Amino acid sequence: MRCLKIPALIVGMLFAFPNLASACTMQEAMDKMNAFSQALIATNDQAKISDYMVKSQSTMATNTDAKGKVNYDKICGAYDDLLKEVASLPPPDAPPPAKNDACIAKFNAINKIDAKAGPFEIDTDTSIKIPTQSAEIKVTTVTQIVPPKSFHVRIVSAQGETEAASVDGAKAWVKHGGDWVDVPQDNLSDVLALAPTDTYLRASGLDNVVCNGRQVVNRKAYLSFTYTITAQGVPMQVTSYFDPRNRLPIKGEGAADAAGTKTTVTMTYKFDPTIKVDAPVVQ
């Protein structure tokens, strides 16, 4: 789902827009987080995984200032160092489970966006429970996508409301507590990373997909797949459900536990031919 940036991916999205001068982009930081998480999982050592989850979580917090500006240069450097540390760890006691190429191919095929299916909306509810805080952190994200590359994203949390939009992936705009502003071309890729425009769920390049076959949920049968992605460098197990008749996504459910911080994510998919994405009015 690349993950989906607050001890998880989504809240970091709220802070991405003020950072328009970093040499290391948000996408590059996400790629390094993913590489770190995959290397950590491969150690097959639960104690080390828990220890490094804590280090990973603190990386974003310590490199985000009071105004929410993220220093991606420092984050990229921190993950480079973490990758070196993990690479120096002793080999795992047991080999990782063998990947199922046929299952992976089946999932990749059904997860690829079908432009003929038309525009769709993803309603995402994220809940984060931190042991030291009584209240849960809640984030609601509504993403509307018009294939192949147009989208509008609206993120609402206690920090306020953020919107982003792009038409055909050639130009993008953002709005956070004010008017819409143009996104410089140098930062276009950061905004484009906010919405999945190639796959329904953020799950590209996985080698740990498990095909669950048909599962009955509330008296309805779905094609189900389970896999592990990374969110803020933390492994998150995701189960996805597809309609076996038209092979379109219905729901995705993710859960992660990083040193006691529990994150749950629910994504609901709706296909609606009336969805349109237009360029916003920039003052």
CATH superfamily: Lipoprotein localisation LolA/LolB/LppX
What is the annotated CATH architecture?
Clam
Low-confidence stretches: 1-21
SSE order, as H and E?
HHHHHEEEEEEHEEEEE
Radius of gyration: 19 Å
Indicate the structural class. alpha+beta
What would you say this structure looks like, in words?
The chain is α+β, with helices and mostly antiparallel strands. The protein has one domain: outer membrane lipoprotein receptor (LolB), chain A (Clam), CATH 2.50.20. It is built from six helices and eleven strands. β8 (220-231) and β9 form a beta hairpin. The chain starts with 8 loop residues before the first helix and ends in a 12-residue tail after the last strand. Residues 1-21 have low confidence and may be disordered.
Compact overview of the structure:
The chain has helices at 9-14, 26-42, 46-62, 72-87, 101-111, 188-192; strands spanning 120-129, 137-146, 150-157, 160-167, 171-176, 181-182, 210-217, 220-231, 234-242, 249-258, 261-271. The protein is of the alpha+beta class and 283 residues long. Residues 1-21 have low confidence and may be disordered.
Give me the secondary-structure topology.
Blueprint: H1 9-14, H2 26-42, H3 46-62, H4 72-87, H5 101-111, E1 120-129, E2 137-146, E3 150-157, E4 160-167, E5 171-176, E6 181-182, H6 188-192, E7 210-217, E8 220-231, E9 234-242, E10 249-258, E11 261-271
Helix pairs in contact: 2-4, 3-4
